[in-house]
Each structure stands twice: as C-alpha cells, then as structure tokens.
C-alpha cells in the first residue's frame, strides 16, 4: 500500500535515533532553514519546467501545455489578495503551509517541513480547482544539522554537518483530472533528469494535498 510522502520522511527521522533538541532551538532552526529555502526556491518562479520535461515524452506536449501555462501564470502574480499561513507539526522541527489566494480563488499551496536530518519544500498548483502540478525539493543532510565539530570528535566520526554534502532530490509531477500523467525526477550527483514511470508515491502526494485542502475548510 502506498504511503504519503511524509510517512517516508518520518522513517528517515526514526533511523537517525537522535531526539529533538527542544522547542526554542527548533523554532530558531526552522526560521533559519526556511529563510534559506525561500531564497533559493519557493515562489520564485525560477523552476524551469520547459527545458528538461518536454523532451522526455514528446507525445505529452499537448497535455502538458496548459499545466505549464498555468504554472507560469500563477508565479507571475506579484500581489496576492491574501496569503494564509498554518503551522505544521508532522516533523521534529516543525513546518508551515502557505495558501495563496487571488480574488477568493486558491491558486497555490507551499509547504515547508524540517527535521534534524532533512528539509523539504513542496509547491502545489491548482487549475480549475484541481491539482495540476507539484514541485518538490527534498534535501537530505549528511549529518543532523546540530552535528558540529565537537560531536564529530566525540563520536570518532570523520564528518560534521555540511550543507554542501546534502543529497538533493527534486520531483515534478503533472496531473490531469486527478491522475498523474507525467513525473520527472532529478537527483544530485550529476544524474540526468529521468521519467519515473513506476512512481509509487502519487497517492501520497494526493493524500497530502487533500489534507491541506481540508484544512482550508475548517
């Protein structure tokens, strides 16, 4: 049975075997990491969904065109009518969800999740009130974010936390009428983007999205 994406993250957290360092430190860390994520990715409209995605399956060009045009339209909006923010506590370091509205219409949702060993940002784009595109960036740390030089020496380790050594995984998922029709996956390490035809987390993405939508109705 397919499990939501963040169930997978929960397993990653458990495998570290390291407990959270307290709410005060967590909040400060979340703020710092969130700032870095926002600068490099979320809401910037810099995600290129043309250059790499189209060439993989040319027969999908017509189906992907309206999804891409909608993505560009939404990211071209500079002045939102309203942006609602909700705290998320599904991971050890917390997170938040932002809901972007234009003239009463929900256009986009951006979520941030932070853990001791990872951070993730996911952008959900709506078209005709349905999920049409999801961009997700997951950064897996080489060591927990608080694993400094002293801890490295104490554990006879040869590495401390280094953001430059993180593994980056990016997903671009295209939906039509609630069904995943195209998925591009990109991983760090010089690997080329590839189409993942056996993508088994689509139900997880839909479940997470529906849960977020449910929160807007409460």
How would you characterize the overall build of this protein?
By secondary structure, the protein is α+β, with helices and mostly antiparallel strands. The chain has a domain at 1-14 and 91-218. Helices cover 30% and strands 31% of the residues. The chain contains 5 helices and 8 strands, in the order αααβββββαβββα. It has helices at residues 5-16, 23-40, 61-75, 149-154, 202-216, and strands at residues 82-88, 95-102, 105-114, 118-127, 130-140, 167-176, 179-187, 194-195. Strands 1-2-3-4-5-6-7-8 form an 8-stranded antiparallel sheet, sandwiched between helices. Strand 6 and strand 7 form a beta hairpin. The radius of gyration is 18 Å and the shape is globular. The two termini are 28 Å apart. 28% of the residues are buried.
Overall residue-averaged pLDDT value: 76
- How far the N terminus sits from the C terminus, by CA atoms, comes to 28 Å
Number of β-strand runs? 8
Judged by helices, strands and strand pairing, the structural class is alpha+beta
Order of helices and strands: HHHEEEEEHEEEH
Strand content: 25-35%
Radius of gyration, CA atoms, in whole angstroms: 18 Å
Low-pLDDT runs: 6-28, 34-46
């Amino acid at each position: 049975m397919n499990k939501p994406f963040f169930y997978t993250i929960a397993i990653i957290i458990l495998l570290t075997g390291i407990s959270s360092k307290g709410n005060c430190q967590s909040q400060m860390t979340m703020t710092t990491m969130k700032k870095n994520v926002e600068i490099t990715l979320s809401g910037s409209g810099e995600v290129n969904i043309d250059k790499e995605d189209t060439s993989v399956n040319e027969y999908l060009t017509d189906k992907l065109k309206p999804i891409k045009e909608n993505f560009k339209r939404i990211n071209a909006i500079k002045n939102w009518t309203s942006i609602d923010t909700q705290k998320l506590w599904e991971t050890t370091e917390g997170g938040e969800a932002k809901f972007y509205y234009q003239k009463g219409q929900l256009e986009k949702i951006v979520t941030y999740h932070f853990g001791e060993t990872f951070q993730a940002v996911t952008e959900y784009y709506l078209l005709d009130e349905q999920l049409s595109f999801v961009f997700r960036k997951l950064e897996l740390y080489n060591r927990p974010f608080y694993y400094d030089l002293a801890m490295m020496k104490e554990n006879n380790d040869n590495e401390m936390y280094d953001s430059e050594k993180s593994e980056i995984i990016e997903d671009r998922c295209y939906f039509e009428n609630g069904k995943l029709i195209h998925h591009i996956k990109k991983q760090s390490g010089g690997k080329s983007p590839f189409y993942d035809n056996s993508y088994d987390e689509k139900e997880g993405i839909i479940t997470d999205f529906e849960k977020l939508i449910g929160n807007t109705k409460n």
